[in-house]
From TrEMBL:
GO biological process: L-leucine biosynthetic process
Cofactor names: a divalent metal cation
Keyword hit for Transferase: yes
Sequence similarity: Belongs to the alpha-IPM synthase/homocitrate synthase family. LeuA type 2 subfamily.
Species, as recorded: Friedmanniomyces simplex
Pathway: Amino-acid biosynthesis; L-leucine biosynthesis; L-leucine from 3-methyl-2-oxobutanoate: step 1/4
UniProt cross-references to PROSITE patterns, sorted A to Z: AIPM_HOMOCIT_SYNTH_1 (PS00815), AIPM_HOMOCIT_SYNTH_2 (PS00816), PYR_CT (PS50991)
Record's catalysed reaction(s): 3-methyl-2-oxobutanoate + acetyl-CoA + H2O = (2S)-2-isopropylmalate + CoA + H(+)
Protein name in the entry: 2-isopropylmalate synthase
Cellular component terms per the entry's GO annotation: mitochondrion
Length: 665
């Protein structure tokens, strides 16, 4: 069997109503409709395994907690589960709040109506809901009834219902309402629907205070949503005593337009919407009440339903229905607050940065690329927003590092680290989780343990030798000095002397520079590791109490240093984190040095101490070649380094015992 070449004979086009002066297209939705949740009836009847009493019980309580005031709880005449559940609701004190209406459904069959009404005895507010087909297809095929017979049955059952509900002082229910659904309204002749509804209305005799509910279902969605809106507008305009009627919608989703149909039909005059959470229901489902409510919310209208903790709702819906919420389901789907692609992540990250920068409060206007709703408003976390796979770029990766380690990576480091992430995602062929990205960063920049260099002990002192060209520092121009006078304090030079552990061996090293960082760079140069500082950034990290990833006190300094090896194009980044800003920068330089050595094609061992405080390499070893290469033309670091040196200016001497801190991250 194949699709028909010409389906026009088999499937006839829907004929829209002719309403040239239709009003709904220029209307907007500016008020919240009455909601009816039919999860426990229409939703439940479509499940492979309908809910048991306990599941219904829990679901009902959730609906009440969310704020639903009208809940269709059962089809009591279907059997013991629904009947007993209804009885349990009615007879358990305190479960049904006084302002909540319990709605129950029955076909137009007297014995079933009787049983349905009986199930409600003892309740405060109850809606009896009857349905009967008005569409030619159903009348002819299912019932074998003419229009007259259908109308007569509708009237007869309404009268009977009235006699055992609102007209019966012993009905046992404090307040009755009545709902009538002309089944497959959307496929019915509108004049006939009106005719039946007028007759039903006359039989029930509603008032403005106690209106009748005409629920107009798109039992099967058969046309574009504008056609449904036309039908609703036609009904609203032509039915008499409109003020005594609540016009209710019940859209199904066969063409995937139930939400649109419900929204346009509200513009066309409807007062009430029946649907289910996340759209469970017959075939493609009922209209999704979550989407409708949050669509309103994102237009600045509170829907009266509280989805602050949408994840808990999802939990109950999924376990009760035994159907997972689709990952792309509006608002609730796992992937709808996620971006994988680089340009989306970049835009979202910039959006959040702009919001932070403007000190926006939670209530300030939401202007965010790609995200129509602040995920926080529905209890979803920012962590879920940006996820990283092979389609991601630096922005998303930087976001994760910001969220997990509180580090604001400089742009260059973002680019460098995202290449590492890209390699990993390509290799694994899957998404990397935030924790994995964090671990990758910690490892790549040696935040837990520097595999090559450990700062064991050090002193930063003023270099009193006043030599214009201290050993190892060829980056500085000679200073003008008057013999017999000390240099002005702003020109004081620093001497790094300390113990650095290299590949498990401790070595005393020294170097002099304009500040602590350049002094360490000079000391490293004495080891043949001649690195120029090409970029330097630092920021403080305010710990919000025991954040994971980096141990420490409340405030720490994070330093990012980009280095080039003299005469080399290759650049490496180093990262250091420590309570002390100077030590943080020293760690960053050693982190870069370690990356640099590790990135060389061969391992630079062995080192051999030449004198007690300097090191050299075996002649002919890979490092000695490197040293020869690096000894070319050292350059001074950029201005940013001066910022760090200013910190050092504040104290004459900085001492540190780095070993334990070198382990810190
Ligand atoms: C669009 C909707 O969602 S409507 C709600 C549908 N929900 C359900 O059907 C769930 C609960 N249903 C049930 O438990 C059963 O179907 C019952 C108790 C209603 C009826 O059970 P049965 O008597 O065994 O009938 P069965 O289910 O086989 O067929 C339905 C019968 O109801 C009739 N019927 C269907 N709709 C209606 C209606 N609105 N009013 C009166 N009779 C109706 C059918 O024509 C059929 O009658 P028939 O046996 O004379 O041919
Ligand atoms: C009973 C009615 C309202 C129904 O469920 C439908 O038509 O889909």
């Amino acid at each position: 069997m194949v699709m028909l070449k010409d389906p026009s004979k088999k499937y006839r086009r829907f004929k829209p109503l002719d309403i040239p002066d239709r009003q709904w297209p220029t209307k907007t939705i500016d008020k919240v409709p009455r909601w009816l949740a039919t999860d426990l009836r229409d939703g439940n009847q479509s499940l492979v395994d309908p809910m048991d009493g306990e599941q219904k019980w829990r679901y009902f309580q959730m609906l009440v907690k969310l704020g639903y005031k009208e809940i269709e709880v059962s089809f009591p005449s279907s059997g013991a589960t629904d009947y007993d559940f209804t009885r349990r609701l009615v007879t358990t004190p305190g479960v049904v709040p006084d302002d909540v209406w319990l709605q129950v459904l029955s076909p137009c069959r007297k014995e079933l109506i009787r049983r349905t009404v009986d199930s409600l005895k003892g309740s405060k507010k109850a809606v009896l809901h009857l349905y009967l087909a008005t569409s030619p297809c159903f009348q002819q095929i299912v019932f074998g009834m003419s229009n007259e017979q259908s109308k007569a049955l509708a009237v007869e059952c309404t009268k009977y219902a009235r006699s055992i509900t609102k007209d019966d002082p012993n009905s046992g229910v404090e307040e009755w309402a009545y709902e009538f659904s002309p089944e497959t309204f959307s496929d019915s002749n509108m004049d006939f629907v009106l005719d039946v509804c007028e007759a039903v209305k006359a039989a029930w005799e509603p008032s403005e205070q106690h209106p009748i509910i005409f629920n107009l279902p798109a039992t099967v969605e058969m046309s574009t949503p504008n056609v449904y809106a036309d039908q609703i507008e036609f009904f609203c305009r032509n039915v008499t005593e409109r003020e005594k009627i609540c016009v209710s919608l019940h859209p199904h989703n066969d063409r995937g337009c139930a939400v649109a149909a419900a929204e346009l039909a509200q513009m066309a005059g409807a007062d009430r919407v029946e649907g289910t959470l996340f759209g469970n229901g017959e075939r493609t489902g009922n209209v999704d009440l979550v989407t409708l409510a949050l669509n309103l919310y994102t237009q600045g209208i509170h829907p009266g339903i509280d989805f602050s903790d949408l994840n808990s709702v999802i939990d109950i819906v999924e376990t009760s229905n035994k159907i997972p919420i689709h990952p792309r389901q509006p608002y609730g789907g796992q992937l709808v607050v996620c971006a994988f692609s680089g340009s989306h992540q970049d835009a979202i990250k910039k959006g959040f940065q702009a919001r932070e920068k403007s000190n926006a409060t939670r209530e300030d206007p939401w202007v965010m690329p790609y995200l129509p709703l602040d995920p926080e408003d529905i209890g979803r976390t920012y962590e879920a927003i940006i996820r990283v796979n092979s389609q991601s770029g630096k922005g998303g990766v930087a976001w994760i590092i910001k969220r997990t380690l509180e580090l604001d990576l400089p742009r260059g480091l973002q680019i460098a680290f995202s290449k590492i992430v890209q390699r990993e995602t390509d290799m694994l062929g899957r998404e990397l989780l935030p924790n994995e990205i964090k671990e990758l960063f910690v490892e790549a920049y040696h935040l837990n343990r520097n595999p090559r260099f450990g700062l064991v002990d050090y002193n930063i002192t003023t270099d009193r030798s006043a030599s214009p060209h201290p050993a190892g520092d060829t980056t500085q121009k000679p200073q003008q000095q008057t013999p017999g006078k000390t240099a002005p304090s702003r020109n004081l030079r620093r001497k790094f002397s300390g113990v650095i552990e290299i590949d498990g061996h401790e070595h005393h090293v020294e170097g002099v520079g304009n500040g602590a960082l350049s002094a360490l760079a000079a000391a490293l140069k004495n080891l043949g590791i001649d690195l120029d500082i090409a970029d330097y950034k630092e920021h403080s990290i305010e710990r919000r109490g025991g954040g994971e990833g980096v141990k420490g006190r409340d405030t720490q300094a994070a330093t990012f240093i980009e280095c080039t090896a003299s005469g080399q194009a290759q650049k490496v980044w180093g990262v250091g984190i420590h309570e002390d800003v100077v030590q943080s920068s020293l760690f960053a330089l050693l982190s870069a040095a370690s990356s640099f050595l590790s990135s060389r094609p061969s391992t630079p061992v062995p080192f051999r101490p030449k004198r007690s405080n300097t090191l050299d390499m075996e002649p002919g070893s890979p490092l000695s070649g490197l040293r020869n290469e690096l000894n070319g033309a050292p350059k001074s670091g950029p201005d940013a380094v001066a910022k760090l040196e200013a910190h050092v200016e504040k104290g004459e001497q900085i001492n540190g015992t780095g070993k334990e801190n070198a382990e810190a991250s």
